[in-house]
Amino acid sequence: MVDPNAAAAPAESANAVHHRQTTNRCATSKAGPSSGKRRTTATTHNNSHHAEARRVHPVAPASEQHPAMIEALLKPEAYPHPVSRVQLIETHISWVLLTGRFAYKIKKPVELGFVQTGTLKQRLHCCHEELRLNRRMAADLYCAVVPVLGPARRARIGITPLDPTATPNESLLDAAVQMVQFEPQALLSRALTNGSVTRAMLTDLAWTLGLFHLRAEMADPDSSFGTPAAVCEPVITNLSVLAPLTTQADQHAVLSQHRQWIDQQQQRLLPRFTQRKERGAIRECHGDLHCANIRRDRNGRLEVFDAIDFNAGLRWIDPISEMAFLVMDLKMRGDPGRGLEVLNTWLECTGAYDGLDLWPWYSAYRAMVRAKVSALQAKACREPEQRQQLLGELDSYLHTASCWEQPPQAGLVLMHGLSGSGKSSLSGQLIRPLQAVRIRSDRERLRAFSASEGQPARFSGDRYAAEVTRWLFHDQIPFLVKRSLQSGYAVIVDATFLRRQERRLMTDLAEAMGRAWAIVHCRCTDTTARQRLEQRQREGLDPSEADQIVRDRQRQWLEPLDDREQRRTVVADEFSTLATVRAALATLLNPPDRR
To answer: Mind listing the pLDDT tens digit for each residue in 238-261?
Structure first.
């Protein structure tokens, strides 16, 4: 939980201490009696993905006991641990009480369509769901569900955590989620601006998210989660709400064109949505994955919190949709490369390349949701300067969404060379400049020998057997490349591609899709290769198990590049620079007629 002790709390501080915020830019912040301060209004920024437009409906009136209960909880003596000052942040659907050591979130009794917490039983359920869902990735942050004991005018926080089977009774006024309170500077949204986030931290976050999505519960095949209707309805509803909030002719034109694109894509993608559902892609995800719902813990690791608990449909989704939100948020915060590296690490962990053809759809949707939130906030904001900032955000998100209507027809890069020649290192460095998704044959080979989702491994035994290599280069990699090329990103395949037929399959695929292609031939001395392979074996961090024996065996399979291939090949040796390789690839992938 965030500690917004500063009078002018920075933008995301309130967002980190509650679930979906009000569409208003201002949330009430009230200090407890002991502070000697009067009520103040703290400026807050709603970064929540689902600050749903349905909140245009009036808030259901709170029952009479809650104002008295909250007034009582502003007193330090209402807590079972030492408290010197209590601060209240009130949002559209919750009260959050900050005590210094802990934060207590109490859900408001509201009936808003997308959130139903009108009864104590419903609020108890949501509290326990919040605890369960967030302990999946932030167990140290979420302490317990604790009782709020009565009577209302002398309300206090109980000591004994509530059991999930607890039922309302006369002494139980309400329930609160007890969380560890933390400084707002710990939020990723803040840390990105001061340079304290390292590439290693984001890589670790991406791998953590990958494992989380792989282990997340799979939607029941008979449920409505992930059906074409469940995927498309929020997209259409979002646009319907956004349209009357826009006032400029150019904004109307963007929305009109986007609606036509949505209608076309919806018909084209319906079979794919059904297929994703049937193949178990729909999982119980986080539901609101953006930078203001990620914090840096005391050990320097990035930790995801504040998952959606009040609406199952918003979290039982395709992980591709969830990652599209995070990548977009990272991009809008000024560095597209960060988001792309997070995506690549996540893909390498999950192997979810087969869902990348849906990336433009979900990226456009997430951008339009953010556009709607900005529009709603601008409408409610009374401060001219902030309102102009929000209107600028609205235009930026509209532009981002419209760009996905015609994603770049990016090209294909094949790495080529014996093991130890530097392919993986160079391909990793090319991800940012080429704006590329990288598929590593070593990782896919390893994945083929691993059981998953209760299914046995595809292969066993020798990972470099001819049967395995044939499947990898003739079936799996071409399939993943075809899906990945539809993402709008370039695709780099990090593999040896020693045989001419393997290369031809890939270049023919690129040409059939109207994409340019290039080959990066990596070479080095045998001494350098041997040193690299030995170091890789010692470190044990690379998915490749290739050693000098494998490298020697590869020479038997190596078929030289033909004239057609050589015309589209960039040679990279131990003395080549990234700049020269990048420049040569730019010429091959973006000839004058394609620029």
So the answer is: 999 999 999 999 999 999 999 999
